[in-house]
Amino acid sequence: MNTTQVAALREAAAESVNCDGLRAAADGDEYSLETPEDRREGLSEEAFREAAAAHADYVTNWYVWSRDRPEDRRAFLRWVEGAGDRSVPKRYAALREGTARTWGELRITASLGADGERRYDLRHAADAEREVVDLSVHDDPLAARRLSKHDDDGRYRPLSTAPTLQTGWVFPGLSANELVRAVDGFYPATVANWYRERTGDLDVSDWRGTAERQTGIYDIVDELSSEQVEWIAESCCVDSQCLKRRQWDEHGGEGGELDVPRGDGEFPCREPCSLVIAAARKWTTLEREESREYTFELTPSEKEQVEAIVDAVAEGRTDEIREADVYEGANRYRARFLRAKRFDEAGNLSGAPTDDEDGDEDESEE
Amino acid sequence: MSQALVIVAHGSHLNPGSSTPTYDHADRIRASGAFDEVREAFWKEEPSFREALRTVAADEVFVVPLFVSEGYFTEQVIPRELRLDEWNVAAWDSDGTSASHATLEAEDVGKTVHYCGPVGTHDAMADVLVQRAESITDDPDVGEGFGLAVVGHGTERNENSAKAIHYHADRLRERDRFEEVRALFMDEDPEVDDVEEFFESDDVIVVPLFIADGFHTQEDIPEDMGITDDYRTGYDVPAEVGGTRIWYAGAVGTEPLMADVILERTADAGADVGEAIDRVRADATGAAGD
Ligand code: SF4
């Protein structure tokens, strides 16, 4: 605690202070100061300073939270240190040790700097136990935007909340404002939407409204049926693919709710994102095709192998299947064997032609 | 009263480099201190246009589209997604290249939005094109003996895209700095494929009026002009085609001086940017000139 903080508290006492159990008031030259553990009245300026010194944690806590800050950022920062659930003494004890929260794949550890100022360590949750020196150290919160662009294999991440955030970096000493900025760099707008949801103000835009709003090349996505929208949510929006908690449904009316689990994420998704809309466009054109019957010859194991391959791709597991693990249907040698045996020169499965008009136009439009 | 700047750009689901110029320009403006907050927002990345305004605290927001011309995105998509409900393209009162700004309310956040015309049509773009020519030739006085081609996509979506190219080509021609200035296109005549046929000069600088480098500027245009057979092997600067030396500059939008155009847009719309324009200009030209 420093003298500026005490002077600020004394000044604020004139208007009365009430913050996390600390109360302070002034009546002319007489001051009072109260915490859940202690109550002192009729204090002179000098006695007020002494009382403040006796409750330094309460005073620095008030000072930190009396700072002017947008409501959503303030609520988020208080959530980080569990300000709603813990008394000041408990919270300060935790802050002295470092108290951590998880936000998507981020791990945020709040601790105390000088005079109660909060310091934040931000890193990937998977790096929780690693030493700072073993990680690449950053201090500019804007670096988060660039770190979020690639996964650990160097592949581009078009969806910031996909559970593929790269590891190996740390922001060891962020201020409160810098923390918010960095979190927003990794997961843009999640703090704002989380706060809106907490205050009952989340403006969810369901599938129908979002689809109908589209123009240009996305104009067609409103053709998709409820069942197809369900498949889209199952493909893209579940926790294994995206850490936002899906709050949008097919529509807001009766029967508009989708069956797919929303996910357990801390922060909400308020409308289908651009990635989902772009994929939906492709599905809209693909789903215009009618099913037809093909005749294939497959052994029972080959049928299962086809299923295993689709499954491995859908779960993003192909990288994990070991080179010589020929017991896995999606093993590369197994797939090559199947291709050698069952595909003709034109790449047709069991020699069955797909058809003359297979819908393979418009590949990489964006 | 605090003011924020939100730069809105296309972005990409496939190309990680697409957002880089946007971040670079935003960082440069942030460093100038002209705005309390500077944010980037994207059609294909995050924050989306829909959610960008709620990430700034200021009640007064200047929105500048990092797009080359007026058209589908600036007239329909961006205002709709920002929820500028009262928007009507007539508010810009533009002839296709003259939009300055319109002041509206964003319905979901209750903020005042000064919605600016795209960077690509601002007069200051001519300076950026020149700057690009200087940096690619490494000659601050380049002009004599050199032709300059300003390259656009063409008219596929909107005729204003060609208008913007002609507009800058005309203005640069009036400056009388380069021997010849021409507007060329990827998808229509006069086509960039035959660039050397449109110029008498032995040296021709080719600058695409694109915001970010991507398939068009890194693959199509170099191959179409014949400065490389295969974009993956790269190309020389200059490269000789049919007796003409082609100085291919890549997307003009990556030039540091673009930050100045963004600031000019906000100043035209009433932002209090103080000395920032001078600072950004000095910084950007210094950074590019060595
Ligand atoms: S729509 Fe929402 S939940 Fe689904 S993938 Fe996009 S951001 Fe995630």
Written account of the structure:
The complex is a heterodimer of chains A (366) and B (290). Chain A is an alpha+beta fold. Chain A has helices spanning 3-13, 45-54, 56-65, 71-80, 88-97, 143-147, 176-186, 190-198, 207-213, 226-236, 274-286, 300-314, 332-342; strands at residues 17-19, 22-27, 30-35, 38-43, 99-103, 106-112, 118-124, 136-137, 169-174, 245-246, 268-269. In chain A, helix 1 crosses helix 3 and helix 4 (71-80) crosses helix 8. Chain A has a five-stranded mixed beta sheet with strand order 5-6-7-9-8. A four-stranded antiparallel beta sheet of chain A has the order 1-2-3-4, covered by helices on one side. In chain A, strands 10-11 form a two-stranded parallel ribbon. In chain A, strand 5 and strand 6 (106-112) form a beta hairpin. By secondary structure, chain B is of the alpha/beta class. In chain B, the strands form two sheets. Chain B has a five-stranded mixed beta sheet, sandwiched between helices. In chain B, strands 7-6-8-10-9 form a five-stranded mixed beta sheet, with helices on both faces. The longest helix of chain B has 17 residues, at 159-175. The model of chain B has no long low-confidence stretch (mean pLDDT 93). Chain A binds chain B through residues 70, 73, 142, 145-146, 149-150, 156, 158-160, 184, 188-189, 191-193, 196, 203, 205, 213, 215-216, 270-271, 273-275, 278, 364, 366, and chain B through 12-16, 19, 23, 27, 30, 40, 43-48, 50-52, 54-55, 57, 72, 76-77, 80, 108. Bound molecules: iron/sulfur cluster. Iron/sulfur cluster (SF4) binds at residues 159, 161, 236-237, 242, 244, 246, 269, 272-273, 275-276 of chain A.
